[in-house]
């Protein structure tokens, strides 16, 4: 067989395959017949049979379900809910009635004697208020640490000149703060309170600087001095 005849046969075989595939895809009877041969049956959904007589369509699994009418249950109105709804929706000076029976009496509401009317004996007076203020002030003072809790700590000395200078400055500020705190405990005033808070904040910042300087120079005396002073300063509450 020559090459020309082989090419013709290949063309015929290709055209046949294309024609069969086209028939399988586009021709529905051929598609179903091929699926039956290869055992690939598509799922067939039940289809209603149209009744020429005008009756209801019948399915293979039974007649269509009839419409079910729900039962209407008459629920009694809630008198408390009606009262709240009326109060919430009513405008000032305008009554908007709600359909339905009037709200009934709520058991236990408005029953029993009324509380006694206020008199001079049970009315709060200025003397009672001043006594309460004094008690509250005493409670706040009791919450503050006593002067005995602010102990005198030994001042550390350092061989480093910069650290030693910072220790002396912090110690002087600490002594000044202790004197202010003693005066504040003896007679607490707004001025002493503000002054004490300001001195305390400044001293805490200086102690932080002393701690960093001591850590940089690996100076134990400076670190101990900063830790001891910070511990005592935190006890003072203005």
Features:
single chain; about 240 residues; mainly alpha; about 0% strand; flat
Summarize the helices and strands and which ones pair or pack.
Elements: H1 3-26, H2 28-38, H3 79-89, H4 126-143, H5 161-186, H6 190-216, H7 220-233
Concise account of the structure shown:
The protein is mainly alpha-helical and 238 residues long. It is 55% helix and 0% strand. It starts with a helix and ends in a 5-residue tail after the last helix.
Regions with pLDDT < 50 over 5+ consecutive residues? 52-56
What shape does the CA trace take? flat
Give the radius of gyration: 50 Å
Count of β-strands: 0
Q: Tell me, rounded to a whole number, the average pLDDT.
A: 75
- The end-to-end span amounts to 117 Å
Biggest sheet statistics: none
Describe this structure in words.
The chain has 238 residues and is mainly α. It has helices spanning 3-26, 28-38, 79-89, 126-143, 161-186, 190-216, 220-233. 55% of the residues lie in helices and 0% in strands. The longest helix has 27 residues, at 190-216. The chain is flat, with a radius of gyration of 50 Å.
